[in-house]
């Protein structure tokens, strides 16, 4: 048996249409498109705020290894909006969650498809109709022998009441508004390793062709009376249907339907992602009423080179949209998420007029720029399909129609006001866990559920279902965004593992990018706004004025001007302090003493600060993240560097422990608070496993360390930051790495998002309160 490849399904919302589409060229911000500039929170009106993030590995069967891959792809909800059902193709099952309390979802267990068929059966999509759960299942033995079935499960008992042969490999399912019909896309997907005669590897056509199945639900009567009808998308002899050929579908003899959506007039829209097209079907009659190409787009002002730089100066030309998800806006217009497959992907989403097949609106570069502005840009995907918008859903809340568009690679959902179908207005960004796949509006309860398909137990970032509620107030996310640069593009940022106050500017902070990006840049942050705003970016250069690529883990803005950086090295000897002038140019490099450097592994310098001693001399304080191999276990070092004398001395810091296998504890930051040093101590854990994210203080040594064994500085707990990180109701971030006291007396802390690699990508900037309250008065 050829192993089955998990398709990328998604469940639909609504549908109508026909015609022939053209090409929209978009350079910079799309004409008639939404501007994201300055739009960090909507001006007035309700917003969505995250209420909970539920890791689905916690819903696993008893006795299963917690590290076993388990995902949540497509989800559906019971009629009362209180029970969520999700597909888990990785573990070959469906899961159930109690979401009666949106702030406290509860696992209700799973149903293994192995109990209903074969251990290799994969659920690809799910829908709920009254008391029944409809699960479409891929049972294919190979790409050339595709097969599948529809299992009808009673929600209350989880017993299968009927199984229907679908005649091919299914992808998505949608139920009509009047609940009279269900439509199922039978993709019969291509084998990316196969080479058709006269074509390239992975090319089309690859028989057998896909089609659509319509299930007549017979007024919601017993499932035994439901009847299946086939809607072929090719002629009986395998040739192209005239409507598809005339529309310019890429390979109309192999349509490969992906996603289905039904509108209020029972018109079905079906995306043909690999074929860059949309087919329209009259559901009651099963007649193909039209088809159109999704066309191509030329988009400028985006990042198209994987080089560690966030540079919005690239462009793509005449690229097929290749839409994945589709959703009806109303009975005339439909929206597509233009993820792309093998030839395309335009990094945005579009609204089409079903009557003409023409593009009525296109996001252009604005969707990708949302990722950049919110620190969620995945530079690793720059040369490919960027943000990869995969999911789209439309729903009405309180009389306002919203569009939700999910970014598979940058881990967010963008929310738009679609009161005018051809003029979407961006409202907000919702952070998700990795690979948001299923977007499920639950308007009856004012909720949105997002299920994610990426599960990485090694990195500790697990697939989840996130819940958001529409309401008043300011949402927790974002806590930091960027302003536009001189060219009108959002300043790129991410991987901020350090903070410093800005001398003489009470509301201003500095941060610095680490090795996730190159060249190193110092970012200016206006913390007096909410959310805080990155307002400027200063490139760092070496002594010769060339761009520098430092793994900067700490920053201190000197009252004398310029900066100190704590630069971590891949090897001990590569760790150093670097002094910059105000223009960001390297003026001094201070290596570690050889005996200290020799005892370090990959973890070295993590934080830096400076003070002035009683003689007026500048003293630099730096922390090493982990133990030096020659020191006792469980002890990290604090370094004191006398700038005038050019000498180091060292003190010890006793680390806590979590007793979690594979975990380690380290230091992440140091900052001066009066006559004390405030230090971040954290574990390596994230999500529900996170246990230690704290700030301690130690007395600042008045002079160099005495000869002999290193003195252990007594520490006092100042604040446990873990509750504040958990209060965002998201995936608890691992890397609490930046801490400072601003000139306004407020204490700020920040998490490092690792450049959206092996992390959710979310950055949390915390205002911990006045220093006098956090650290006490002395």
TrEMBL record:
One Pfam family named in its UniProt record: choice_anch_I
Domain of life (superkingdom): Bacteria
Keywords annotated in UniProt: Signal
Classification via SUPFAM superfamilies: YVTN repeat-like/Quinoprotein amine dehydrogenase (SSF50969)
Domain spans labelled Choice-of-anchor I: 345-427
Keyword Signal: yes
Signal peptide per UniProt: 1-32
Record carries keyword Signal: yes
Annotated segments matching region Disordered: 31-66
Record-annotated Phytase-like domain positions: 492-754
Name used for this protein in its record: Esterase-like activity of phytase family protein
